[in-house]
Amino acid sequence: MAGDVKVRYSDSDLEKFREIIVDKMEKAQKDLELLQSAYKNDGNNGTDDTSPTFKAFEEGSETMSKEANTQLAIRQEKFVRDLKNALLRIENKTYGICRVTGKLINPERLKLVPHATLSIEAKNMQS
User: Fold this and answer.
1) Are 73 and 33 in contact (CB under 8 A)?
2) Which residues contact 34 (CB under 8 A, 6 or more apart)?
3) pLDDT one-digit tens code per residue, 52-109
4) For 16-114, where are the E strands, in sequence order?
5) Residue ranges of the Zinc finger DksA/TraR C4-type domain (predicted)?
6) How far apart are CA 110 and CA 19, in angstroms?
7) Residue 122, burial from CB neighbour count under 10 angstroms (0-12, 13-18, 19+)
8) 26-41 average pLDDT score
Protein backbone atom coordinates (compact mmCIF):
# COMPACT_ATOMS: atom_id res chain seq x y z
CA MET A 1 0.00 0.00 0.00
CA ALA A 2 2.85 2.39 0.81
CA GLY A 3 3.83 2.43 -2.88
CA ASP A 4 0.52 4.11 -3.75
CA VAL A 5 1.36 7.26 -1.79
CA LYS A 6 1.79 10.15 -4.17
CA VAL A 7 4.95 12.12 -3.55
CA ARG A 8 4.21 15.84 -3.51
CA TYR A 9 4.99 19.01 -1.63
CA SER A 10 2.83 19.72 1.42
CA ASP A 11 0.17 22.41 1.25
CA SER A 12 2.27 24.74 3.41
CA ASP A 13 5.27 24.27 1.08
CA LEU A 14 3.04 24.87 -1.93
CA GLU A 15 1.80 28.08 -0.30
CA LYS A 16 5.39 29.32 0.16
CA PHE A 17 6.16 28.58 -3.49
CA ARG A 18 2.91 30.29 -4.51
CA GLU A 19 4.04 33.48 -2.73
CA ILE A 20 7.41 33.38 -4.51
CA ILE A 21 5.71 32.88 -7.88
CA VAL A 22 3.10 35.61 -7.36
CA ASP A 23 5.87 38.00 -6.35
CA LYS A 24 7.97 37.13 -9.42
CA MET A 25 4.90 37.35 -11.64
CA GLU A 26 4.03 40.86 -10.46
CA LYS A 27 7.60 42.02 -11.18
CA ALA A 28 7.65 40.23 -14.53
CA GLN A 29 4.32 41.82 -15.50
CA LYS A 30 5.69 45.30 -14.69
CA ASP A 31 8.85 44.62 -16.70
CA LEU A 32 6.74 43.39 -19.60
CA GLU A 33 4.61 46.55 -19.55
CA LEU A 34 7.78 48.70 -19.57
CA LEU A 35 9.20 46.75 -22.50
CA GLN A 36 5.94 46.94 -24.43
CA SER A 37 5.63 50.68 -23.93
CA ALA A 38 9.30 51.07 -24.94
CA TYR A 39 8.92 49.29 -28.26
CA LYS A 40 5.45 50.68 -29.01
CA ASN A 41 6.70 54.20 -28.39
CA ASP A 42 7.92 55.81 -31.60
CA GLY A 43 10.63 57.53 -29.62
CA ASN A 44 10.79 60.59 -31.82
CA ASN A 45 13.36 62.59 -29.91
CA GLY A 46 13.06 65.70 -32.03
CA THR A 47 16.08 64.99 -34.24
CA ASP A 48 14.26 66.31 -37.34
CA ASP A 49 16.37 69.45 -37.53
CA THR A 50 19.76 67.76 -37.11
CA SER A 51 22.01 66.56 -39.90
CA PRO A 52 20.68 63.74 -42.14
CA THR A 53 23.64 61.45 -41.28
CA PHE A 54 22.95 61.73 -37.59
CA LYS A 55 19.25 61.10 -38.21
CA ALA A 56 20.02 57.92 -40.20
CA PHE A 57 22.32 56.70 -37.46
CA GLU A 58 19.71 57.52 -34.85
CA GLU A 59 16.99 55.60 -36.76
CA GLY A 60 19.30 52.60 -37.18
CA SER A 61 20.00 52.32 -33.48
CA GLU A 62 16.33 52.93 -32.74
CA THR A 63 15.34 50.02 -34.99
CA MET A 64 17.90 47.80 -33.31
CA SER A 65 16.73 48.64 -29.83
CA LYS A 66 13.10 48.23 -30.91
CA GLU A 67 13.92 44.70 -32.13
CA ALA A 68 15.85 43.95 -28.95
CA ASN A 69 12.92 45.21 -26.85
CA THR A 70 10.50 43.10 -28.88
CA GLN A 71 12.67 40.00 -28.30
CA LEU A 72 12.87 40.78 -24.59
CA ALA A 73 9.11 41.31 -24.44
CA ILE A 74 8.48 37.94 -26.14
CA ARG A 75 10.77 36.21 -23.62
CA GLN A 76 9.08 38.08 -20.78
CA GLU A 77 5.61 37.06 -22.02
CA LYS A 78 6.74 33.41 -22.04
CA PHE A 79 8.12 33.82 -18.51
CA VAL A 80 4.79 35.25 -17.27
CA ARG A 81 2.94 32.37 -18.99
CA ASP A 82 5.30 29.81 -17.40
CA LEU A 83 4.70 31.36 -13.97
CA LYS A 84 0.91 31.26 -14.51
CA ASN A 85 1.22 27.56 -15.42
CA ALA A 86 3.25 27.01 -12.24
CA LEU A 87 0.37 28.54 -10.24
CA LEU A 88 -2.02 26.10 -11.93
CA ARG A 89 0.24 23.21 -10.91
CA ILE A 90 0.12 24.52 -7.33
CA GLU A 91 -3.70 24.51 -7.52
CA ASN A 92 -3.59 20.91 -8.83
CA LYS A 93 -0.99 20.00 -6.19
CA THR A 94 1.34 18.73 -8.93
CA TYR A 95 3.80 21.59 -8.51
CA GLY A 96 7.44 20.68 -8.01
CA ILE A 97 7.12 17.17 -9.42
CA CYS A 98 9.54 16.42 -12.25
CA ARG A 99 7.56 15.57 -15.38
CA VAL A 100 10.22 13.04 -16.44
CA THR A 101 11.29 11.25 -13.26
CA GLY A 102 8.16 11.86 -11.17
CA LYS A 103 10.43 12.80 -8.25
CA LEU A 104 10.27 16.06 -6.33
CA ILE A 105 12.34 18.86 -7.81
CA ASN A 106 14.90 20.23 -5.32
CA PRO A 107 13.28 23.15 -3.40
CA GLU A 108 16.42 25.27 -3.89
CA ARG A 109 16.05 24.87 -7.65
CA LEU A 110 12.38 25.83 -7.43
CA LYS A 111 13.26 28.99 -5.48
CA LEU A 112 15.63 30.03 -8.28
CA VAL A 113 13.52 28.74 -11.18
CA PRO A 114 9.97 28.62 -9.78
CA HIS A 115 8.48 27.56 -13.12
CA ALA A 116 10.79 24.52 -13.50
CA THR A 117 9.08 21.30 -14.53
CA LEU A 118 12.26 19.22 -14.74
CA SER A 119 14.64 18.11 -12.02
CA ILE A 120 18.35 18.74 -12.64
CA GLU A 121 18.65 14.97 -13.17
CA ALA A 122 16.07 15.03 -15.99
CA LYS A 123 17.52 18.23 -17.47
CA ASN A 124 20.96 16.62 -17.63
CA MET A 125 19.49 13.58 -19.37
CA GLN A 126 18.22 15.88 -22.14
CA SER A 127 21.56 17.51 -22.89
Assistant:
1) no
2) none
3) 555 655 666 666 677 888 899 999 999 999 999 999 999 999 999 999 999 999 999 9
4) none
5) 94-123
6) 12
7) middle
8) 87
